[in-house]
Design goal:
The structure is a homodimer of 256-residue chains. By secondary structure, chain A is mostly helical. Helices cover 70% and strands 0% of the residues of chain A. In chain A, helix 1 crosses helix 2, helix 5 runs antiparallel to helix 11 and helix 9 packs antiparallel against helix 11. Chain A starts with a helix and ends in an 18-residue tail after the last helix. At the A-B interface, helix 6, helix 7, helix 8, helix 9 and helix 11 of A face helix 6, helix 7, helix 8, helix 9 and helix 11 of B. Chain A binds a DNA duplex (30 and 30 nucleotides) through helix 3.
Chain lengths: 256, 256
DNA sequence: CTCAGCTTATGAACCCCGTTCATACTCACC
DNA sequence: GGTGAGTATGAACGGGGTTCATAAGCTGAG
């Protein structure tokens, strides 16, 4: 029955248009100015129609999250793809996510906001599952890196499951994103270039897990080279329109 | 002029009563059910009066944060107080914060929610400064531990400022709290007792910074003993009414 | 005691949304 | 053409944050 299939396709297309419109509004005017009526109007629909797709505003927010997660994962996967050792791949994952957070601050803020208890529990359960499912690759990718390292003898066994080991770098990265995002904190402590700091700490952390060191984590030049190397493979993804973009710390512009 | 002073005192007292009422409502009915009208009514005031103290709902939320921060800091300070080495003090800070998050989940969720872009920027600037100021001890405590360690020769120099070094353990702890709070994530990866995992990773991280190890981070028994030791000095703070409370991982109850 | 002047409290009214629902429309199928 | 399931509409509803004109209380002076 071709009619039914067409219907479904149209439904999915419309949903995507709603999501895009919502995303655009967030990018343009901030999370605070996301209104259901405006999203519907932007797609030339009445407000009620929106509620055939999303049970509530929170539901819409989480839908956007699930939608954006795909892109986030893709960027990370691509960054890790070109690295050889387990350690390099782990670092690449963190750098990619960090770049994503820098380049798409609104999306990243949305991730934080939506994973808040208030929003999370106001959405429908199925939508929550969607978000979790969409984010599954994140944890799996990190754990896979550990697993591959163990298999190839690249890493020493830790008596911990790959996922448990993976939680360390993952938490460190998330936490640093948080601190960076919490405006004021970094200025408070006069910490410039927090993302380079993240990389340094990540290296130190891997050292602690006795992953063989590539170079001294305190070697600033080597660190920069590594970041640039990873970034080079990512800028097409992250800056489609940009030409000649290079790694530039978010605070670098501020210093005269 | 005694009148003026009395006025100010009354003002402060009333503000505190508002804050307490709001906190109670959050504890009782969750963040979603915090309504300005109800807070005012709980203190036998009209709604409008609330707006003489707090410019908006977000302002009130941030005020609660600043208020609660004091308690959070106090618990951490107390935990670190009884430890001798730099490494133990650093661990104690993390454990204390972790316990605070477990024992006061609502407060902790509020911290997360309020540091969200949406809430943060809807509050008044002076209130935001309040929150930052109230949280300053957090970063300073962590950095102080590093500084003391360096001064006493307890720690090797890292070519990094104490605050920069401190950001590592700090971010790791925050990040782990986040992941734990993001419901579903841990079940997804079958990770039980995430807080013990935090401790393990913290030890591994300190290893990486070449802080001399106390024991093998993978030694589960030693880890538990250390956690219990730190907790013992904290339960009076965290469970005023509780008698005979002991450390118990949040997931321990679930397993039959 | 009394009046002026300032501070604070009041709660009804305002307004902005998110959400719902009865109605009308569309269109594939008989 | 008739039928019914699916879909769109937009006015109306309701909750709740915010404001404001008014009233009440308090202080200090005369």
């Amino acid at each position: 029955m071709g009619t039914r299939q067409r219907r479904l396709r149209e439904l999915a297309e419309r949903e995507q248009r709603f999501l895009d419109a919502a995303r655009e509004q967030i990018t343009e005017h901030g999370l605070l100015s996301l209104h259901m009526a405006k999203v519907a109007r932007a797609c030339d629909y009445a407000t009620g129609t929106l509620y055939q797709h999303f049970a509530s505003k929170e539901d819409l927010l989480l839908a956007i999250c699930a939608d954006q997660a795909e892109e986030r994962m893709a960027v990370m996967a691509r960054a890790a793809q070109w690295q050889t050792g387990s350690r390099e791949r782990m670092i690449a994952l963190a750098v990619a996510d960090m770049l994503f957070a820098i380049r798409h601050p609104d999306h990243f803020r949305l991730f934080q906001y939506a994973s808040t208890e208030v929003i999370w529990h106001a959405a429908s359960p199925s939508r929550r599952d969607n978000v979790l499912e969409a984010h599954r690759p994140l944890g799996d990718m990190v754990a896979q890196v550990v697993q591959d390292g163990l298999d190839s003898g690249d890493l020493p066994p830790q008596n911990m499951s790959p996922h448990a080991v993976a939680l360390g770098p993952w938490a460190l990265t998330e936490g640093m994103h948080n601190l960076v995002n919490a405006e004021g904190v970094l200025d408070f402590y006069a910490l410039h270039d927090p993302y380079r700091l993240l990389l340094r700490h990540l290296h130190l952390q891997l050292n602690g897990m006795q992953w063989q060191p590539l170079f001294d984590p305190l070697d600033d030049v080597a660190l920069t080279r590594q970041i640039s190397h990873i970034c080079a493979s990512l800028f097409d993804d992250l800056c489609p329109e940009g030409t000649g973009h290079r790694y530039c710390s978010p605070t670098e512009d501020r210093t005269p």
